[in-house]
């Protein structure tokens, strides 16, 4: 089960395509709920722990209702942290609420190591890449759950590129990009950008052409706000799953798989009362 970030649905909808490509290449059987699909944990932002628990319980109930083996923790740093905290509360209340989950880094490492997806580094030749450690996926997970994601994303990036340069400092000592604490969407752009000068200098020192990120807030800050204030060094920003998707060697599905997928799709649209032939585009 996969939960998209609402920003990726309503604003940057094409950003969802990267995951879809990966799921296709890995021959994955996956779904997104038609209700309660939001990845961002707004309850966490407002300190509403009852609502935080409720949001997690919705995910648990959906998984158990449809016999889903595991969910990918949302890419939104607050969303994944909030989801896990809410699920933890639900399991304390009732051990039967335990469900399977994995972090996006563990999932990507798994499908690469198992050979379920193939990558071609040559498509990224001629560019230098660096990795930004998200506070939420690094320090905060390490502090609250004993495991931060530092080595896994670097390993994933290195499977996709030949030229990788780490930032200094890195991992748990890496600088916040300036979007943390809700600073990206809040009306304190100058203050956020002032803090981001540290991240800008880090990126510049690597000489990287591309900054790879794993958090949606970090991505927006590094891609949109930092270049607005600091203009003498240019770079691209890519999600780590975007990098993987662009490096994929896509192999078509077998005819039997395509036929089965079409059967399931037709049944779904019929259940929803949608007639694709009658729709205008």
Examine the secondary-structure arrangement and name the CATH architecture of the largest domain: 3-Layer(aba) Sandwich
What global shape is seen? globular
Rg over alpha carbons:
20 Å
The strand line-up of the biggest sheet is: 3-4-5
Strand content: 5-15%
The helix count comes to: 13
If you average the pLDDT, what whole number results? 92
- Major sheet characteristics: 3 strands, parallel
Number of domains: 2
Helix proportion of residues, in percent? 40-55%
String of helices and strands: HHHHEHEHEHHHHEHEHH
Distance between the termini: 28 Å
Can you tell me the residue ranges where pLDDT is under 50 for at least 5 consecutive residues? none
What structural class do helix, strand and pairing data support? mainly alpha
Pfam families: CCG
Cofactor: [4Fe-4S] cluster
Protein name: Cysteine-rich domain-containing protein
Keywords: 4Fe-4S, Electron transport, Iron, Iron-sulfur, Metal-binding, Oxidoreductase, Transport
């Amino acid at each position: 089960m996969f939960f998209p970030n609402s920003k990726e649905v309503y604003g940057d909808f094409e950003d969802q395509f990267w995951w879809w490509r990966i799921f296709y290449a890995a021959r994955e059987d996956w779904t997104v709920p038609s209700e309660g699909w939001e990845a961002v944990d707004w309850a966490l932002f407002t300190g509403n722990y009852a609502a935080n628990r409720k949001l997690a319980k919705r995910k648990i109930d959906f998984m158990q209702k449809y016999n889903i083996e595991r969910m990918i923790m949302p890419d939104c740093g607050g969303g994944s942290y909030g989801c896990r905290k809410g699920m933890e509360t639900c399991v304390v209340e009732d051990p039967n609420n335990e469900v399977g989950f994995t972090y996006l880094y563990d999932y990507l490492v798994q499908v690469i190591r198992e050979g379920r997806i193939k990558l071609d580094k040559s498509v990224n030749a001629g560019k230098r890449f660096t990795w930004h450690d998200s506070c939420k996926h690094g320090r905060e997970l390490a502090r609250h759950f004993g495991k931060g994601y530092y080595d896994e994303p670097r390993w994933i990036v290195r499977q996709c590129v030949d030229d990788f340069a780490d930032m200094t400092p890195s991992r748990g000592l890496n600088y916040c990009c300036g979007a943390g604490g809700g600073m990206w969407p809040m009306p304190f752009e100058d203050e956020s950008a002032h803090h981001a000068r540290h991240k800008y200098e880090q990126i510049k020192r690597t000489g990287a052409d591309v900054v790879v990120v794993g958090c949606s807030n970090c991505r927006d800050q590094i891609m949109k706000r930092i270049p607005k204030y600091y203009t003498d060094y240019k770079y691209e920003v890519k999600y780590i799953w975007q990098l993987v998707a662009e490096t994929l060697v896509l192999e078509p599905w077998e005819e039997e798989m395509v036929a089965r997928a079409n059967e399931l799709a037709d049944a779904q649209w019929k259940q929803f009362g949608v007639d694709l032939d009658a729709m205008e585009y």
